[in-house]
Design goal:
Metallo-beta-lactamase, Chain A, single chain, Nonspecific Lipid-transfer Protein, Chain A, iron, (2Fe-2S)-binding protein, 15 helices, Rieske Iron-sulfur Protein, 25 strands, 3 domains, monooxygenase activity, metal ion binding
Length: 516
């Protein structure tokens, strides 16, 4: 099996029974904030896109690059489609010209022509990507590969059941806006960033240890930030709180925990993997030397990509749009239908929209208890976002139904909150369509009834087996220190005597001290 690195989470898998291209991303994403690094735009995409199968793991724009898919990827390719609760991924791919689809069933092995086997595990909670994330398992001629990309399954046992894995691709770096955009003192922001960075690596080590593959490939990040307004997010300033460590940092940290089987793929690198676990990897340039000169590479990219960023920015302003009026029209019907998400948010969310010249601010409130969108009335709010008015205008103009997959991942905003993180805020703003909202409401309804069904014992405590956050198995991921339980999958903490979640609003856990 030959694995060619094509940048970020993208790779091409070549076997004797066909080729699979995964998650090709080249063009900037999220309001021109994210770019692939190392740069993959100069690869021979005409050749790389001539494949038998296409796998797009989910709709995040650093995995689903509509412009690139339309221009370069063969429409003769059969799409390996994850089993998602909505048809949006298939619909968008059909709009780009793809017509052949294999609708897989989650966790079920499908045998394709020539003995090529694939399995896709779909994650479908409202917090998994844009209503869905997935991993791809491939087997051919005794060689097995798991492309986990940035999916976070509760465990990898289903993949392990299928036989020893030879190549394991997974995310290790940050792909979020926290804590960089929060209005915090510098020291606090650094401390929170370091905590998140450490937690990212801890989760990665857990997955690696679970699967015990012959070779581990760090992929799916980090992006780079080439706009001057976002340049500080690149991990080139020695900031221990930066959440975007690159592959060279992964290799260094992995070595500290005894890892010796890491393989870095630059765009154009290729690894030949055999059923005996042997691997041969070639690179277009020396990997260590490349990352040693990371800042210079980024500066060259920044200069070269500046016209692209400028062109994107020029398209955002739509002064003819009545922002408050349009948000009322689009969001208020969803507020009326929402039960679980509205209750979970529990209060008004304020958006401060800064005018084109920066001199004026219009404040708009999405009032979840009141089920309305209105002008800010000087009341106290727990959640506040500040961004450029033109970004909201553009979201309205393109009828964007997922603000997480656009505004929030762009990092082109600042945020403040009183109290804990609230996942329901972001879950609602990724569900700005009736189909998505109804799915999320149904999921939370079912989830609330299911998580308390079984117990497990952790030291002196008997607790519900499934984490109230995303159903992780606490018999595997739960650690108790004193009276605090930590779910290691996502780092969520619970005070056991009270059951209170210490990480976010809601999500109370059932626990009883029963002795050892």
């Amino acid at each position: 099996m030959r694995i060619t690195g094509t940048g970020h989470a993208s790779m091409r898998i070549d076997t004797g029974a066909g080729s699979i291209l995964c998650d090709p991303w080249v063009n900037p994403a999220y309001f021109a904030s994210w770019f692939p690094f190392p740069d993959n735009s100069l690869l021979d995409w005409e050749a790389l896109g001539d494949v038998d199968y296409l796998y797009v793991s989910h709709l995040h724009r650093d995995h689903f690059d509509a412009e690139h898919l339309k221009r370069f990827i063969s429409k003769k390719a059969t799409v390996l489609l994850p089993e998602y609760p909505t048809s949006q991924l298939e619909d968008e791919l059909r709009d780009l010209g793809f017509t052949s689809f294999l609708r897989t069933r989650s966790d079920e092995v499908h045998e394709l022509d020539g003995g090529l086997k694939v399995m896709i595990q779909a994650l479908i909670s409202p917090t998994d990507g844009p209503i869905g994330d997935s991993s791809l398992w491939v087997e051919y001629d005794g060689v097995r590969l798991l492309n986990q990309n940035d999916a976070r399954p509760s465990d990898l046992s289903r993949f392990a059941e299928l036989g020893h894995v030879h190549a394991h691709m997974l995310q290790f770096s940050g792909a979020i806006w926290y804590p960089m955009v929060y209005e915090l003192p510098t020291a606090a922001k650094t401390a929170f960033g370091k905590q998140k960075r450490d937690r990212q690596f801890d989760r990665t080590w857990r997955y690696i240890d679970d699967l015990k593959a012959d070779h581990v490939f760090p992929i799916a990040g980090p992006p780079c930030f080439l706009d001057d307004e976002l340049w500080q997010f690149n991990d080139i300033f020695g900031d221990e709180g930066n959440i975007f460590p690159d592959q060279s940092v992964f290799m260094s940290e992995y070595a500290k925990v005894g890892g010796t089987n890491g393989v870095v793929l630059l765009p154009g690198s290729a690894s030949e993997v055999t059923a005996t676990g042997d691997i041969t990897t070639t690179h277009p340039t020396d990997v260590d030397e490349f990352f040693a000169n990371k800042k210079a590479h980024l500066e060259e990219m920044r200069e070269r990509k500046a016209p692209i960023i400028a062109a994107e920015k020029a398209s955002w302003r739509h002064p003819e749009i009545d922002v408050l009026g349009e948000l009322k029209k689009r969001i208020e019907p969803l507020l009326e239908e929402s039960i679980y998400l509205a209750k979970g948010v529990g209060g008004p969310v304020r958006f401060d929209l800064v005018s084109y010249d920066g001199d004026a601010v219009e404040s708009i409130v999405v009032d979840f208890p009141g089920k309305q969108v209105r002008a800010y009335a000087d009341e106290k709010v727990r959640y506040r976002f500040r961004t450029q008015r033109e970004l909201i205008e553009h979201l309205i103009f393109i009828d964007e139904g997922d603000w997480v997959n656009s505004l929030f991942l762009s990092c082109r905003f600042s945020a403040a909150r009183i109290g804990q993180y609230n996942e329901f805020v972001y879950a609602f703003f990724k569900c700005l369509s009736e189909e998505r909202l109804q799915y999320a409401e149904g999921w939370y309804d079912e989830h609330e009834k299911a998580v308390e069904a079984e117990d497990t014992h952790l030291g002196e405590w008997t607790v519900q087996r499934r984490c109230p956050h995303l159903k992780a198995d606490l018999s595997r991921f739960g650690i108790v220190e004193g009276n605090v339980l930590t779910c290691q999958l996502h780092g969520w903490k619970f005070d056991l005597p009270s059951g209170k979640c210490l990480t976010s609003v809601g999500h109370k856990i059932r626990a009883e001290k029963t002795g050892s």
